[in-house]
Amino acid sequence: MNAMTDRAVDRIPVPVAHVGPLLQLAEAQGLSRESLLKAAGLKQGAINPEATLHFEQFERLVQVTHEQSVEPAISLLTGAHQVEAEQAFVNLAASSSATVRDATAMILRYFHVRTPLACAELLERDDLAVLRVGEQFELGQVRINYIEGVITTLLATLRALLGDNLSTSDVYLDYRPPAHASRYSEIMGVPVHFRAMHNEICFPVE
User: Fold this and answer.
1) How far is CA 33 from CA 4, 30, 44, 71, 151, in A?
2) Model confidence over 125-151: pLDDT tens digits?
3) Cα-based angle 41, 46, 50 (whole degrees, multiple of 5)
4) 204 burial class (0-12, 13-18, 19+ CB within 10 angstroms)?
5) Handedness of CA 191, 89, 79, 62 (dihedral sign)
6) pTM score, whole prediction
């Protein structure tokens, strides 16, 4: 999980699906999508279902949206909304897998295709499964925003699989508590611990 140390990441393609929910939440606050795109140096047509952004474009758009948003936890909320767009796949994973482990492994295969900037692996620790998330590249100033979205999306996906069993789970994050730290547990619905060694979701398995 070692990240690359140069800006080779700038040319990595990022699916527009990663910014769709972010822009929808921004618009719900009264922000103009057109103005956000313009401030990020993007044309209106840059956001369509078939398009991809280079990371440098994605980075600018995330930064601009966070600067103008009145909701500091907008990336957490974006992650929670992201899983709605992937609900059909979540349902497929749940119905075609014999165990939670099998379903989680299937979700991770899909995750690696859909999320080129991050990597994830499934580990076991005592009687818990540990979903560890890292970065494929240096993510610069949007690192925390991106990790917030990825962890929240994976957590929401696991909740669709585990239901009430996820209430006994914990999230561990490798950075200091941000100013909106109190929103993490509120939005994620599980205890959140900062200054950890890794970014992880720990949850029970059968």
Assistant:
1) 32, 9, 8, 16, 25
2) 888 889 999 998 888 889 999 999 999
3) 155
4) middle
5) positive
6) 0.84
